[in-house]
């Protein structure tokens, strides 16, 4: 039965992705100058369908509409537990994601992310990290960007630490607002993807769930004024404590 659910949901996901991809390519190319605005709406629609396929139910929280409708951009800082996180944040906010460069070459999804203005980076280069930070600081202050500073997925109970590098962006552009968000799955042990588990193994565990409730906790935003001259490392610890703090509570 579990195998059937996995293949059924995988087939539905594949059909939806392949069916929408040509349409999305066409729209983004025709309206290229406005691709960032249009792309946000397209990815929200696609992500809501994906959440329906995997039976994910989002418990929305206060202030969601405030940030959804705001004109200024902000940088979402979230914990990372599952591949579902991308669909959850995309369905709510329609952000572009900071992703490793390999993602750009993923079939269909990578190309659409590139057309939308996704931010890609090469690992292991200090110059590349600085380039990415400047890109976010200079060109994305009026957009919504999402980052998983843990750098990888993992069991929520592991409380993987945040990497501090991304927090230097607030020093480069004081107008950027950091928005800490906690994604908290009710059955986090089943949902979380952690080593040595393969993606297929994790997808099977996710697919066998009849319903996947997830709390999306939006914390107080942070600007340079709220940080009081703190270093990037200190800001990182502040946000990490804010994001991972609720994970100690019962769902």
Question: Can you describe this structure?
Answer:
With 251 residues, the protein is an alpha/beta fold. The chain has one domain: 3-Layer(aba) Sandwich (Glycerol-3-phosphate (1)-acyltransferase). It contains eleven helices and seven strands. It has a seven-stranded mixed β-sheet with strand order 1-7-6-2-5-3-4, with helices on both faces. Helix 1 packs antiparallel against helix 2, helix 1 packs across helix 9 and helix 2 packs across helix 4. The mean pLDDT is 84.
Task: Write a compact overview of the structure shown.
The chain has 251 residues and is α/β, with parallel strands linked by helices.
Q: Can you tag this structure with a few keywords?
A:
251 residues, alpha/beta, Glycerol-3-phosphate (1)-acyltransferase, seven-stranded mixed β-sheet, 7 strands, 47% helix, globular
């Amino acid at each position: 039965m579990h195998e059937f659910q996995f293949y059924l949901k995988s087939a539905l996901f594949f059909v939806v992705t392949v069916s929408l991809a040509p349409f999305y390519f066409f729209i983004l190319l025709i309206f290229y100058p406005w691709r960032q605005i249009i792309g946000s709406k397209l990815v929200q629609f696609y992500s809501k369908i994906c959440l329906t396929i995997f039976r994910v139910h989002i418990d929305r929280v206060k202030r969601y509409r405030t940030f959804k409708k705001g004109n200024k951009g902000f940088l979402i800082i979230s914990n990372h537990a599952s591949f579902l996180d991308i669909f959850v944040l995309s369905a709510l906010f329609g952000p572009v994601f900071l992703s490793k460069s390999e993602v750009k070459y993923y079939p269909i999804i990578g190309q659409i992310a590139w057309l939308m203005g996704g931010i890609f980076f090469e690992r292991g280069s200090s110059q590349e990290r600085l380039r990415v930070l400047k890109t976010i600081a200079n060109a994305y202050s009026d957009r919504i960007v999402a980052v998983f500073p843990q750098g990888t997925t993992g069991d929520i109970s592991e409380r993987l630490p945040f990497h501090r590098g991304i927090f230097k962006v607030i020093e480069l552009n004081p107008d950027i607002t950091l928005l800490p968000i906690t994604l908290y799955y009710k059955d986090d042990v089943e949902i979380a993807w952690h080593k040595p588990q393969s993606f297929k193994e994790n997808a099977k565990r996710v697919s066998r769930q009849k319903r996947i409730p997830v709390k999306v906790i939006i914390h107080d935003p942070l600007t340079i004024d709220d940080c009081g001259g703190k270093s990037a490392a200190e800001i990182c610890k502040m946000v990490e404590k804010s994001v991972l703090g609720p994970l100690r509570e019962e769902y």
